[in-house]
Amino acid sequence: MRGVEKAFGSFKVLQGLDLDFKQGSITTVLGPSGTGKSVLLKHMVGLLEPDAGEIVFFGTPLSRMSRTEKYAMRQRYGVLFQDGALFGSMNMFDNVAFPLRKHTDKSEDEIRDIVLQRLGEVGLDSALGKFPNEVSGGMRKRAGFARALVLNPDVVLFDEPDSGLDPVRTSLLNDLILQVHAEHGGTYVLVTHNIPTARSVSDYVALVWQGKRIHYGPTEEAFSSDDPFVRQFLAGDSAGPLGMD
Ligand SMILES: Nc1ncnc2c1ncn2[C@@H]1O[C@H](COP(=O)(O)OP(=O)(O)O)[C@@H](O)[C@H]1O
Ligand SMILES: [Mg+2]
């Protein structure tokens, strides 16, 4: 993302945001609630268009993509929304099978193999027939993760995967993210306001504040930084250079 600006009415959410995501790595974008994290993810997949600036996907600016190219780009993304965003009327199996049925011409036998493998990876082999409202929030997120991976995406976006999970389930989900990434690779972008999540899963950390990037770098570097902004941010301190608004 290069100098991305976005306002809703007179409210400027993104104010010249620069972000890079290195291929094959896990980057966490950390920022308080309401800073525009979900808005920036929507820009990445082309659901929102910037007022100024540019989003470049594997070398191609989104503004220069045709409809067909944008459609092809979206298929290279796997997205995990806050609550897994499963279809309530479909069981776990059909939820995960959905992208394969919609976007590929694979046979039901092939689909079955892939879905069982993906659900197995996230520990849901025994919940295939369960509907989203019959399982826990953590299980819905894991099913959402399985579904996000089912088309072998090059880039996976996670929107607050830890929201609504207790610390133990958060740390289990983080382990799972690391495990699946180690096995399948890909570029992962994870937005969260959860500092322990950023610390445990990411190779790189970007801090976003008031619609701008205030820090970007390797995780260890961020957590050992002397910069007063970065320190206050990562310590979650109320005292320091960052104010409420
Ligand atoms: N489609 C929209 N129309 C108007 N305001 C929006 C829209 N989407 C997001 N916003 C506003 O932009 C700000 C950032 O939202 P969001 O990206 O959801 O924050 P978060 O960092 O918590 O994900 C919020 O104040 C939100 O109300
Ligand atoms: Mg959000």
UniProtKB/TrEMBL annotation:
Pfam families: ABC_tran (PF00005). InterPro entries: AAA+_ATPase, ABC_transporter-like_ATP-bd, ABC_transporter-like_CS, P-loop_NTPase. Keywords: ATP-binding, Nucleotide-binding, Transport. Residues 1-235 form the ABC transporter domain. It comes from the Bacteria. Signal peptide: none annotated. SMART domains: AAA. This is ABC transporter domain-containing protein.
